[in-house]
Task: structure prediction
Amino acid sequence: MVLSSKPPLTNPARSGADRSLAITVLAVLAVVSFLPVLLTPIPAMVDYPNHLARMYILSQNGTPDANPYYEVAWAFYPNLGMDLLVPQLARLTSVETATRLFLLLSQVLIVGGALLLEWVRKGRVELAGFAALAFLYCLPFSWGFVNFEFGLGLALWGIAVYLLLAEGPWPLRFVANLIFVTALYVAHFFSLGIYGAALGLFELSRIQQRQVAYPVAAARLGALALPALVLFAIMHVSSGSIGSEGSSWFVGFKPVWPLRIMNGYNLTTAAATGLALMIGLLVAARRGVLRLEPAGIWLAIGFALLYLVIPSKLFGTSFVDLRVIPAAALILPAFCWLSLPNRAWRMAALAGISGITLLNLAVVLLVWLPYRADYAAIIASFQKIDRGSRVLVGSAGDNGDPPFADLTSYPMYYAPTLAVHYAGAFVPNLFTETGKQPVRPREAVRNISIPYGGPVPSGLLAAIATGPSPQDAPPFVRTWYRDFDYLYVLGSPAANPLPDLLELLETSERFSLYRVRRKS
Result:
């Protein structure tokens, strides 16, 4: 890549008509990109139904409709963005609509924050808006990491405000940093990490360029870190936490994620659009029309190292490392300078990024729109469940890992958790992990709860029911035939695996519902 310490001169051949066309295309892409959320009552995102179920519990807490199996327990820990905002929005509209508005707000924060950051840094918008729309349905977002998406959007605004005040009075900069650090801590812990890493690297780049003296730089870095350190100290004193302990490095996935990041539903589309974007950036860099400024070099190297060294699972949160990729993609355009030599280059670049965005968006719509019927079918099936029942979720697959062979089935994994609202049921897969969610299962069902896990393989359930429980069987399902009243088996309908134990009540294209005949 060609690197430069100062931005290139604006190409005099760039016409006002081309700029107007680019702005028009950006506006049209933005409108179209928000359509999936507006057209679908329940977006087909993997974790989204689980989050929606939790929003029902929080909104109904303390009312006659409260679920008897769950309690709300607030504590001083992060990752509470939607848990704090959605119940308040639900006072004005339905919980379903309030949750969807939160997702839409997160998308607006992402796009708006990327545009503001680029404008603050360069005095114009050029690349960031297109980058934000291209990544708006990337894998972490389309899999329903909504608190992270909301937090990352806030982080972009916080970075922009900090850079805007970088040369201003230090008290004003300190107060702005304090506000954003607090908000990001509450919204999502890893978005706070992205914010701190970006600004820390920016300040280090200023030292390298001799823009600030070492004592001044040390003071600025200390002021940047102080609010976060105070919050962590308060959390420690108040016995708060950040998810669960333990980390896992799935090193083999790190070379793969950049080719899967662009689309969460179709690996071929993800690879094609990812490769097209990489090739386009490489060609532009080699021709010298795309350049990184010095601060951008620090950020690019820093994010690359962070991606390589950070665990894939940290504090009980999965897919941590791949979240670095969209963060870098949203921040770095503000530190890049693009100087296309002629109209042919400009039209090619505009067509290329528009094609990538529209292709990914088409896949999203092809998945989300049919899921309106699938989600409606499972909600209708809740009427066949006795209120107050215990509902287990199984999978026709071999394990509960992401079904990479058919990612379009993934958004169904947590749909049965909506039974906590529609049937007042207990569903063990509801997200209830200490340090991440303020909802807890009550003592009577805590031993059969999965604080953070997917469906149980149906083969394992059959093995437990027909013979001695396998030694590696999780504790919460070792006596599932006595502990649960109903079983959802996700996947295409198949023959009843346990006809003596299970009574078929309902089938759909993506699930089967059984009543469990209690076995002693």
